[in-house]
């Protein structure tokens, strides 16, 4: 599953290679890729034809392309394996090519949505006054958004009866923090994932928020050169973000701070990776 930094790399690539271009034709090659567009593939294609992509925007892990002067936007769902590729028009079709967008210019490239497992897709939506596709209006700002309200987030943490990792993954509280970067930020903060949020002091929650931003920015820096080519690519398996991880995926490897073997625990149908020494579990109560 791509996380915020991966999606931001794709956004930058789309901003560079797709913004300002006018759609000549859309070809929907698999109905599942437009299943979030209830009116169907033909309607999707017809409504995009002749429209101009204004730019590429992102909130959390959501990515969308506003269409100029229409009040609508194409929302991209990358799912588990979705890729948005800008490819030369004469490049052979990918095996799992689902949607092709041809442009009314002679730059020689087209936009392709490729998705092996077809959990992802594209859909067209009205935009809210804030410019968000209406279906994601409830998604909170992400921590890299300049308008993210640190004090409001910290206050909400204190009031919620939840645990810290659940809160980090709650898209109505803070968006764009997935399993990987939650584990990384908690390791840096020396916080156990099951720590009740109500026990976090303001300095501790401020420190955590700082680490969340640091791990995301570090990942962005690591992937920042990859969008410089014509080939815009994202998928959950891509390796170039993984090298700098301190917690996620490091079961039984020594903690980079204290040398204790890292542990993995099943957590809400996923895994949590942590150092049992640096990140002490909260004391059982009651
Ligand atoms: Zn440790």
UniProtKB/TrEMBL annotation:
Cofactor binding summary note: Binds 1 zinc ion per subunit.
Ranges for domain FPG-type: 246-280
Any one GO MF annotation of this record: double-stranded DNA binding
Keyword Metal-binding: yes
Catalytically driven reaction(s): Hydrolysis of DNA containing ring-opened 7-methylguanine residues, releasing 2,6-diamino-4-hydroxy-5-(N-methyl)formamidopyrimidine; 2'-deoxyribonucleotide-(2'-deoxyribose 5'-phosphate)-2'-deoxyribonucleotide-DNA = a 3'-end 2'-deoxyribonucleotide-(2,3-dehydro-2,3-deoxyribose 5'-phosphate)-DNA + a 5'-end 5'-phospho-2'-deoxyribonucleoside-DNA + H(+)
Keyword tRNA processing: no
BP GO annotations: base-excision repair; response to oxidative stress
SMART domains found in the cross-reference section: Fapy_DNA_glyco, H2TH
Ranges for domain Formamidopyrimidine-DNA glycosylase catalytic: 2-120
Residue sites binding DNA per the record: 96, 117, 160
Residues at the catalytic site: 2-3, 61, 270
Family the entry assigns: Belongs to the FPG family.
Record function comment: Involved in base excision repair of DNA damaged by oxidation or by mutagenic agents. Acts as DNA glycosylase that recognizes and removes damaged bases. Has a preference for oxidized purines, such as 7,8-dihydro-8-oxoguanine (8-oxoG). Has AP (apurinic/apyrimidinic) lyase activity and introduces nicks in the DNA strand. Cleaves the DNA backbone by beta-delta elimination to generate a single-strand break at the site of the removed base with both 3'- and 5'-phosphates.
Protein name according to UniProt: Formamidopyrimidine-DNA glycosylase
Organism of derivation: Streptomyces nymphaeiformis
């Amino acid at each position: 599953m791509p996380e915020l930094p991966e999606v931001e790399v794709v956004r930058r690539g789309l901003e560079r290679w797709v913004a300002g271009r006018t759609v000549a034709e859309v070809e929907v090659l698999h109905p599942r890729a437009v299943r979030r567009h209830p009116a169907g593939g033909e309607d999707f294609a017809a409504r995009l034809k002749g429209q101009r992509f204004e730019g590429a925007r992102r909130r959390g892990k959501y990515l969308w392309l506003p269409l100029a002067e229409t009040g609508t936007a194409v929302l991209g769902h990358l799912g588990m394996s979705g890729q948005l590729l800008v490819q030369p028009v004469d490049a052979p079709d990918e095996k799992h090519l689902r949607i092709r967008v041809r442009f009314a210019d002679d730059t020689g490239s087209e936009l392709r949505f490729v998705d092996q497992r077809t959990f992802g897709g594209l859909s067209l939506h009205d935009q809210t006054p804030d410019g968000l596709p209406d279906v994601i209006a409830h998604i909170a700002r992400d921590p890299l958004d300049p308008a993210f309200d640190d004090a409001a987030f910290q206050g909400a943490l204190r009031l919620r009866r939840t645990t810290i990792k659940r809160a980090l993954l709650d898209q109505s509280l803070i968006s764009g923090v997935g399993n990987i970067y939650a584990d990384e930020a908690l390791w840096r903060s020396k916080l156990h994932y099951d720590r009740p949020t109500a026990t976090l002091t303001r300095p501790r929650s401020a420190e955590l928020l700082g680490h969340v931003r640091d791990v995301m920015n570090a990942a962005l820096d690591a992937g920042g050169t990859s969008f410089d080519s014509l080939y815009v690519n994202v998928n959950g398996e891509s390796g170039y973000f993984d090298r700098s991880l301190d917690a996620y995926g490091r079961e039984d490897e020594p903690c980079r701070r204290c040398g204790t073997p890292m542990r993995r625990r099943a957590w809400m149908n996923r895994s949590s990776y942590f150092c049992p020494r640096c990140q002490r579990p909260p004391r059982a109560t009651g």
